[in-house]
Amino acid sequence: MTVKIMRPMGAVGIVASAALVLAACGSDPGSSSSSTPTSGAAAAATGTANVVCGGKTPLSGEGSTAQKTAVDVFAQQYAKACPGQVVNYNATGSGAGVKQFNAKQVDFGGSDSPLSGADVTAAQARCSGNPAWDLPMVVGPIAIGYKLAGVTSLTLNGETAAKIFNGQIKTWNDPAIAALNPGVNLPSKPIQVLSRSDDSGTTDNFQHYLAAAGKGAWTQGTGKGFKGGVGNGASGSNGVASAIRAADGAIGYMESSYIKDGITAAKIDSGSGAVELTPQNVAKALDAAVFAHPGSNDLAMDLDKIYAANTPGAYPLLLTTYELVCSKGYDADTTKAVKAFLTVSATTAQQPIANQGFVPLPQSLQDKVLTAINAIS
Amino acid sequence: VTQNRTKVRPGDRIFKNLTTGAGIFVVALIGVIGIFLVVQAIPALRADHVNFLTTRTWDTSDPNNLRFGILDLLLVTVSTSLVALVIAMPISLGIALFLTQYAPRRLSRGFAYIIDLLAAVPSIIFGLWGILVLAPRLAPVSEWINDKLGVIPIFGQGNVYPNFSGTIFTAGVVLAVMLLPIITSLSREVFERTPTTHIEGALALGATRWEVIRTTVLPFGKAGYIGASMLGLGRALGETIALAVILFIPRGKLFDFSIFDGGATFASQIAANYSEFNNPTSAGAYIAAGLVLFVLTFAVNFAARAIIGDKKGD
User: Does A262 contact chain B (CB < 8 Å)?
Assistant: First the structure.
């Protein structure tokens, strides 16, 4: 009896695995070709650097969950560029990533924010006395998504966004919103604000943006928990997005990949005109990036400067996640593998992550990242 | 006298010790969990600047200025569980009576399997189903109830208004589905044990099927059914991830005794914020909340066992 059941199952299994193999073969050219139009701007990085394969395998990393999907793509691309080389990334959260990196448990860490305070010294000790660097590898825009019947285009600025998210602006036809949207027929509906009920780096970056760009309208502070004190919290970006979809007149913040099925991303006017959320416009904001340690290979960015800037055509609301690596102090094997992995990640792997809602590193930033990677020894 | 002279064989002794050990182990485990909760909670409770039991807000973001209280968590926890019970109890009773009294034997067995299968669905699945599939469909129902019966406070305008998806009502409905298998299977077993002589006696007196149930099955099984419901309540109080996914958190507003409010339960509050547990004092605040839940669940289960136990003593 069991044999009779098993036999067709085996056949199904073979068919299924064959289909998988076919799908895997087929998806490759498809993904790269579909990513080209999204990133068409001159700013997008394309360079294929010389990768010197080899060294330690598997390479281990741990940390930020926000960059998990991106690092998975990096690992796939790395395996393709350097057959046989494996990277294991454990997405346990930025705090855990820093801790494990400093404890020498993993070869590189992943974090939503650069090393700070006591972690800097701990990292230096971990790297045999050499400084650890924060390399921005994954950039993702944060969208202010809304659903409002009859309004297909909406422009906000830092100040109105701050006032919406702390409850000072309560209805859609508030004069402050109307002033930014001439010609748009705004209804008198109440604004339903949605935020994350769980702790999140997205919330933290969003509140930093409101504080930096809000011209003093955001006094609630920052942190991983939402402090606006208005509206409702829903669990995860998916929860926020589905709540917005269900309610006309709702607004919330989320990763840009959730902008679909009825949710529209608001444009941001930082003082030089309304700017749409596109990869090119985010790249433009990154071109104006200010680094915390200018001239160093530690590429920790001062995002507050990007948030507060009014660069024309730049979409400022973004978050970056970093890979934490030693500038020196790895053994030769690890150095080789880390450099190869990071080189692939910063170059050929940047286009494929665009499909996951991230923004490829612009040329200006990619150059700096590659310089830093080459300087690892 | 003969018993005293019975030789105690080694196998007996070993087996007795093993079972005693298992019994002691589980009691010790509960004790150790209790001690862990108390020990971890005390520093946070000491650092709390407001009354832990009567404060309705929860603020642990600044470890040097902890202001947290459990009253709102308690109210939301209890109200979601009560909504779930109100829905699940009559349905479970119906299912259990159908399976034991009306359904043909073969159908009854297969049906019972299906009900039990509900208990095997992971709660995150129930949660995602609840918020993504059920909530949008339930929203018009909620709005209608709110519109027609809004004058009664428990159906009044909720603090997540005008949003009707992530409410205590939605959470209660999902929770009710999760309770069905627990209440049904326990009640079914009790109803099945109704003495045949009672049933036959009633039939002999000319009772109809419904009268048989009313005069013999229900009085016999009442305590078991109530006990089963309270075990279900214990389960509902502790449900975590499904509620964390479903319930909206109203910002800056408190629970207002409407089933269309949002909020956080003990367990969902802990689940939503556990990533913040890098500071031991803030973590202690959540553990203190966990301790209250532990005591609450313990009391409910204790009451349930007492009710079931009383009946068995008859």
Answer: no
Do residues A316 and A213 make contact, with C-beta atoms less than 8 angstroms apart? Answer: yes
Contact status of A187 with chain B (Cβ, < 8 Å):
no
Asked if the peptide bond before residue B162 counts as cis, ω within 30 degrees of 0, the response is yes
Q: How far apart are CA B199 and CA B211, in angstroms?
A: 10
Whether B182 and B231 have beta carbons less than 8 Å apart is answered as yes
Q: Do B160 and A232 touch (CB under 8 A)?
A: yes
The number of C-beta contacts closer than 8 angstroms across A and B is 78
| CA A256 – CA A241 distance, rounded (Å) | 11
3-state secondary structure of B111: helix
Q: How far B12 CA lies from chain A's nearest CA (Å)? A: 40
Which of A 204-233 lie inside 8 A of B, CB atoms? 223-233
- Nearest in space to A298 (alpha carbons), one of A324, A270, A274, A279: A324
Q: Give A-chain residues touching B276 at CB under 8 angstroms.
A: 199, 224-225
User: Residue B213: which of B59, B98, B47, B86 has the closest Cα?
Assistant: B98
- Looking at this predicted complex, what is its ipTM? 0.77
Instruction: Please report, as a single letter, which amino acid is at residue A171.
Output: T
Q: Are strands A192-196 and A250-255 parallel, antiparallel or unpaired?
A: parallel
pTM value is 0.80
Rounded to a whole number, what is the distance in Å from the CA of B139 to chain A's nearest CA?
A: 9
Segment A305-347, tens digit of pLDDT: 899 988 899 999 999 999 999 999 899 999 999 999 999 999 9
What count of other Cβ atoms lies within 10 Å of the Cβ of residue B257?
Answer: 12
Cβ–Cβ contact A312 with B under 8 A = no
DSSP B184-208: HHHHHHHHHTS-HHHHHHHHHTT--
Q: What is the DSSP string of A25-89?
A: HHHHHHHHHHHHHHT-STTB----PPP---S-SSEEEEE-STTHHHHHHHHHHHHHHSTT--EEE
CB distance from B9 to chain A under 8 Å?
A: no
Are B160 and A225 a contacting pair at CB < 8 A?
no
